[in-house]
Design a protein that fits this description.
CATH topology: Rossmann fold
Mean pLDDT: 96
Distance between the termini: 31 Å
Shape: globular
Helix content: 25-40%
Strand order of the largest sheet: 1-3-2-4-5-8-9
CATH architecture: 3-Layer(aba) Sandwich
Number of strands: 9
Order of helices and strands: EEHEHHEHEEEEHEHH
Largest sheet: 7 strands, mixed
Number of helices: 7
Length: 210
């Protein structure tokens, strides 16, 4: 399995990140996020699910299968990743959702310290009744979800009404969309600024876990 590494220094806390449904592990968004996290002292490892890796060699560009399909691949990435320090798992959108499906068992086994989701897809766009958070109502694995306040997969107004576990820490990015990107003309904020803030929040959140 291929990994892209940022901040690859001995003893650092590693964050294993999976990509979203439609964009690969080496997109500017993923690279900027990994770089910001590395600047804050993390070792960041990015990997791709098989359907995305296949696209690089002319494979089908059809949408991915259901998130649960990729649980074995996420577990394989955890097994394959050399790591000499604490491990956090997570990802962007679908990648974070797949990580959330394996987090509790890995946490119970003492293999990870927590879960980080960047833009969690709480429901399909324009289908708020089709929610995807049931497993987060009883999770005990420490979880950080960084979410844009106007995310069409789960806005602040919607998500704050969900019965999420006390182990879930929601961090809101003002005016952020599903990519956490704010409207600069309206807010004066930028995507890079929001991603740097995510990295800083991840650092303080991780430190608070002990």
């Amino acid at each position: 399995m291929k990994f892209l590494l940022n901040g690859d220094e001995p003893g650092r806390t590693t964050i294993l990140l999976a990509h979203g449904a439609g964009a690969a592990m080496d997109t500017p968004w993923m690279a900027t996020t990994a770089g910001a996290l590395a600047e804050c002292g993390f070792r960041v490892a990015r990997f791709e699910f098989s359907y995305m890796a296949a696209r690089r060699t002319g494979g089908s560009k059809r949408p991915p299968a259901k998130a649960g399909t990729y649980v074995p691949e996420y577990l394989a990435a955890v097994d394959a990743l050399p790591c000499d320090g604490p491990l956090l798992i997570g990802g962007k959108s679908m990648g974070g959702r797949v990580a959330s499906l394996v987090a509790q068992s890995l946490y119970d086994a003492g293999r990870i310290k927590g879960l980080i989701c960047l833009g969690f897809p709480f429901h399909a766009p324009n289908k708020p009744e089709k929610t995807r958070y049931d497993h987060l109502t009883g999770i005990t694995c420490p979880t950080l979800i960084c979410q844009g306040t106007r995310d069409q997969f789960g806005s602040r107004e919607e998500v704050e009404g969900y019965p999420l576990s006390p182990a879930v820490d929601l961090f809101w990015l003002e005016d952020g969309d599903h990519d956490l990107k704010p409207r600069k003309r309206l807010t004066g904020r930028s995507l890079d600024g929001h991603l740097a803030t995510v990295a800083e929040r991840t650092c303080s959140w991780t430190a608070a876990q002990g």
